[in-house]
C-alpha cells in the first residue's frame, strides 16, 4: 500500500500524492507515457529509491525506509539482468545459492520453475544462446524460485518483437494466476495494460489520473487524458459548440463503436475522410471536422473510403461523455 508518496530530485518532481491500495493476488498495471513516474513508483516500492514523503506498507508492515532486500519481493526487468557467463540453471538459482538454500531444495525449485516457464531442457545454455523471449522466461523463472508473494515487473516485454510479446504476455498472466501472486507491472503500452491487468493505474506528470478496472477506464474515463490514452482507437473529442445543447466550453467524448454512418443530409455532423486503415476484421475510417479530434468510424471487413469524401455521422446522447473546460468528466 502506498500512502501519499512523493519523490523529487533537486526539487524536480518525480511523483507526488501517490496513494494506492493493491489487493493481494491482483495484477496491477502502472500505465502512462514516458516520464510520467511509473518506474519511479515501482522503484520506490522495491526500495531502489527512498520516498521524500509518505509511507509504503507491504503485508501491513511499514517498509518506507527498509532496504530492498528486506521487502520480501522479487523483480523482473526489461533488460532481463541475467549473468551472461552463467547457465540458465545457475542464473535461476543464483539468489537461492546466495541465501544458502540446501542443494536438494534448490534442484526441486529449479525444476518446478523451469517446468512452469517451459524451459526444461535449456538448463545448460548460456543467455547468449537463447532468444529474447526465452531470456525473459529465465528472468521469470528466477523470480518464481525466489518464492515471494509480490513480484514487480518493469516493462519486461519491451525488448521482444510483437509476436513474442503476445505469447510471453499470456505466459506472465497465467503464471500470476496459477501462483496466486501479486504482480505490479509497469508499461507504457495501453493494450498490454488493458489485456493483462485486473487494475490499471494511469499516470501523467507524476500524478495518478485514474485507478480502476480496464473497463472502468475505457467506459468511464475521469478526464480527457484518460479518454485519449486508453482504447484503440482513442476516444474522439468534440467541442460542445459543434453539437450544441451542452453549454459553453465543454468537450464531448465519443467512442468509434458508438458512431454510425448515415446518408448525406442526415445525422449530427458532416465530416471529411482523412484516411482508411484496413485492420483485418474491420476498416478504420479517420474523419476531420473542425472543432474535433480523433473522430473515426469502424466499418466491417475491407471497406476503404476515398480520402476527401464526405461522410455524415450520427450518435446517441447516451454514448456521449461530457468533460468541463479543464478536461475533467462531468457526471451525466
Ligand atoms: N534518478 C533520477 N534523477 C533525476 N530525475 C529522475 C530520476 N529518475 C527519474 N527522474 C525523473 O522523474 C520523472 C519520472 O520518471 P520515471 O522514470 O519514473 O518515468 P516513467 O514513466 O517510468 O518513464 P519511462 O517509461 O520513460 O521509463 C521524469 O521526469 C524523470 O526525468
From TrEMBL:
PROSITE patterns for this protein: ABC_TRANSPORTER_1 (PS00211), ABC_TRANSPORTER_2 (PS50893)
Gene3D superfamilies: 2.40.50.100, Nucleic acid-binding proteins (2.40.50.140), P-loop containing nucleotide triphosphate hydrolases (3.40.50.300)
Start and end residues of each ABC transporter domain: 2-230
UniProt xrefs under Pfam families: ABC_tran, TOBE_2
Molecular-function annotations in GO: ABC-type transporter activity; ATP binding; ATP hydrolysis activity
Entry's Gene Ontology cellular component terms: ATP-binding cassette (ABC) transporter complex, substrate-binding subunit-containing
Protein keywords: ATP-binding, Cell membrane, Membrane, Nucleotide-binding, Translocase, Transport
Family annotation (PANTHER family): MALTODEXTRIN IMPORT ATP-BINDING PROTEIN MSMX, TREHALOSE IMPORT ATP-BINDING PROTEIN SUGC
Family classification: Belongs to the ABC transporter superfamily.
Descriptive protein name: ABC transporter ATP-binding protein
Species of provenance: Planktomarina temperata RCA23
Amino acid at each position: 500500500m502506498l500512502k501519499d508518496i512523493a519523490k523529487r530530485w533537486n526539487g524536480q518532481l518525480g511523483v507526488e500524492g501517490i496513494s494506492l491500495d493493491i489487493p493481494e493476488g491482483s495484477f496491477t498495471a502502472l500505465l502512462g507515457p514516458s516520464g510520467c513516474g511509473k518506474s519511479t513508483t515501482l522503484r520506490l516500492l522495491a526500495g531502489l529509491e527512498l520516498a521524500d514523503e509518505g509511507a509504503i506498507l507491504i503485508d501491513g508492515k511499514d517498509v518506507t525506509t527498509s532496504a530492498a532486500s528486506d521487502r520480501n519481493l522479487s523483480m523482473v526487468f526489461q533488460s532481463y539482468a541475467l549473468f551472461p557467463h552463467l547457465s540458465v540453471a545457475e542464473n535461476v538459482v543464483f539468489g537461492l545459492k546466495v541465501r544458502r538454500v540446501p542443494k536438494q531444495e534448490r534442484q526441486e525449485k529449479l525444476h518446478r520453475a523451469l517446468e512452469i516457464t517451459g524451459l526444461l531442457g535449456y538448463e545448460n545454455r548460456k543467455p547468449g544462446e537463447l532468444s529474447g523471449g526465452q531470456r525473459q522466461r529465465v528472468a521469470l523463472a528466477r523470480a518464481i524460485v525466489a518464492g515471494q508473494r509480490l513480484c514487480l515487473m518493469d516493462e519486461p516485454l519491451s525488448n521482444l518483437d510483437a509476436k513474442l510479446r503476445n505469447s510471453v504476455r499470456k505466459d506472465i498472466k497465467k503464471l500470476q494466476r496459477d501462483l496466486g501472486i501479486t504482480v505490479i507491472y509497469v508499461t507504457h503500452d495501453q493494450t498490454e495494460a488493458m489485456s493483462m491487468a485486473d487494475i490499471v493505474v494511469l499516470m501523467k506528470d507524476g500524478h495518478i489520473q485514474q485507478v480502476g478496472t480496464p473497463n472502468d477506464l475505457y467506459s468511464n474515463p475521469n478526464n480527457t487524458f484518460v479518454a485519449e490514452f486508453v482504447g484503440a482507437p482513442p476516444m474522439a473529442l468534440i467541442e460542445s459548440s459543434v453539437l450544441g445543447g451542452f453549454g459553453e466550453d465543454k468537450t464531448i467524448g465519443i467512442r468509434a463503436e458508438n458512431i454510425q454512418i448515415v446518408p448525406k443530409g442526415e445525422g449530427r455532423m458532416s465530416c471529411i475522410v482523412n484516411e482508411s486503415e484496413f485492420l483485418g476484421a474491420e476498416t478504420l475510417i479517420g474523419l476531420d471536422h473542425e472543432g474535433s479530434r480523433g473522430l473515426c468510424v469502424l466499418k466491417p471487413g475491407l471497406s476503404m473510403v476515398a480520402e476527401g469524401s464526405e461522410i455524415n455521422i450520427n450518435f446517441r446522447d447516451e454514448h456521449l461523455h461530457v468533460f468541463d473546460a479543464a478536461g475533467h468528466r462531468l457526471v451525466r
